C-alpha cells in the first residue's frame, strides 16, 4: 500500500500538480447481523478505497474511488487534470507537511467465536429480561482497517487499526402499544460476555419496555433535564460544529471570538480520546493526533478548523480527531435524578438544526417525566425549548458514571432552565 500510494503521488506530480495527498485504505470486516430477534447473516467482506486531493495553481480537486486498478487510477488522474482548471483559486489550499509514523492498534485478527457468543448472549438477555423489546437491526463486527497516507510535503503515515463494533436499534411492543425507536452503538477492543453491560444496551432496552405506555405533560413549565449519554453526544456535536469550518468561515459561529472565554459551567471539561477503541492516530488530512483539551473548566481553549480553515482564517490549527469525552463529576446518577424537582430524563434530543445563535425547539424522545426526584411516566409529544449555548452554561451536575462508546466517553448531565410544552 505504501509503495502504491507513493507511485500514485509521483503520477500526480508528473501530471503537472504542484501538491497532492494520497490515502489508501483496505478493510477486512467480519460481521454478524441480527434482524427481528434472529440471526440473519454472517459475512466476511474485503474492500479498498483510494482518496486523492491535488492542487495546481492554487486550485484544488478531489476524488475517491473503490478500486486500485491501474486503469481506474489513470482515469482518476485524467479527470482531476480536466476538473482543476475550473476549480476556484485559494491560497489556503495546502497538504500536511512533515508528518510521519507507523501505528498499530487494537485486535489485529478476528475472534469469530466471540462474535457468535456475543450475539447469543444478547438474544438470550432480550428473551429473558426484555421480551417485549424487539431488535429490529443489530450488527456485531470486527474491522481491521489498514491505511497509508502520503503527501508531496514529506508526510508518510500508515496504520493498522482493529476494533469490534456493535450497533443496535429497536423498539418495544406489548398489549399497551409500541415505543419509539431507540438505538446505541460504539467500538471496543474486545467483546464482553454480556453485551447488555456495555454501550448502554441494557439501559436502552430497560427504558424501551417502559415506553409502550406514554403520557403528555399536563401543562407548560420550566424545569431541568437529565441528559443520558446519547443525548449528551448531540449536545457535544452542536458545540464542535460551531467550532468547525462551516460556522467559522461563514462567521456564524457563536464562538468566533470566544477562545479564552467561559462558554460552559466550571465543572465542564471536554477532551479528545485518541487512545479510544477504533481511533486512528492521524486524521484524514494527514496530521497526527495528540491529547487535546477543548474546554477546560468551562473555558474554551481553541477553535477546530481544518488545516485549510486555519490557513484561510489565519488561526491556529489543532489535529484533534472527531470523538470527545467529558470528565466525570462526583455525583451519582441516582442522586442527580433525585435532585430534580420537575423536569425530564432525556434519552434522545431531536432538535434538528438550531438557529445560528443556538436557539432551538425540539422533541425529546425515549424520555421520562421527573417529579420530586422520582421518575414517573414515559413522555410523548413533549418538546423542550432553549438555547444550546446556554445549556452548556447551565450544567448543574455531571455524573460520576461514564458510558464508554470507544472514542467518546460521556456522563449524564443535569441542566436547568429548559421550557417544557
Short description:
The protein is α+β, with helices and mostly antiparallel strands. It has helices spanning 2-14, 70-84, 112-129, 201-209, 229-242, 245-249, 307-313, 333-338, 388-393, and strands spanning 19-35, 38-56, 59-65, 100-105, 133-151, 156-174, 177-178, 182-188, 214-215, 221-227, 270-272, 293-296, 299-300, 324-326, 342-350, 359-371, 374-379, 383-387, 395-404, 409-420.
The number of helices is: 9
The helix fraction, in percent, is 10-25%
> What does the average pLDDT come to?
95
The CATH architecture of the largest domain can be given as 2-Layer Sandwich
Low-confidence stretches: none
CATH topology category name of the largest domain:
PmbA/TldD fold
At the first level of CATH, the class of the largest domain is: Alpha Beta
Q: What is the number of independent domains?
A: 2
Percentage of residues in DSSP E strands:
35-45%
Which structural class is indicated by helix and strand composition?
alpha+beta
Alpha-carbon distance between the two ends: 56 Å
Rg for CA atoms: 24 Å
Shape: globular
Largest sheet: 8 strands, mixed
Give the beta-strand count: 20
CATH H level, superfamily name of the largest domain: PmbA/TldD superfamily
The H/E string reads HEEEHEHEEEEHEEHHEEEHEHEEEEHEE
Domain Metalloprotease TldD/E C-terminal: 224-420
GO biological process, one term: proteolysis
GO molecular function: metallopeptidase activity
Protein name: Metallopeptidase TldD-related protein
